[in-house]
Specification:
Helices cover 37% and strands 33% of the residues. By secondary structure, it is an alpha/beta fold. It is globular, with a radius of gyration of 15 Å. The model has no long low-confidence stretch (mean pLDDT 96). It comes from Sporotomaculum syntrophicum. InterPro entries: Phage_KVP40_Orf299.
Amino acid sequence: MFFISPSRGKLSFVEMMDDVITYIKGLPSSSYKIIIGTDSMVKNETCFVTAVVVHRLGKGARYYYRKKIQRKIKSLRQKIFYETALSLELGGKITAYFSESGFAELPVEVHIDVGAQGETRDLIKEVVGMVVGSGFQAKIKPDAYGASSVADRHTK
């Protein structure tokens, strides 16, 4: 599984994480937040895009993404749960890597593509529970830009 960085091209997981740490070390006086979000687009099959955003608070961000193609998923509920599971899986790998690299204190947020307006409102409680129960901060729309903006841009 590889990641794509708009500025650095194709990277392995370890290369991406090394790039993230280099970015953070480049301006250590800043505050950082790591954001993971997944969005999907259904056509003949379902394209899932998981984004990793390194937000240098008040000073921009850098992001990476990976795509995963699955069979067509018609159920909105199933699609949202799978998006959340992909984000959590990657979140677990990232936090483990940070712990081993001395960056365990970095806050990691999972952005979920659900919101109080629209069809996904009935799923909020369950998916937020999944994320919080996994030890991450959860954000939903309109604050879930990791999923609804960054990942969404690459599902098309």
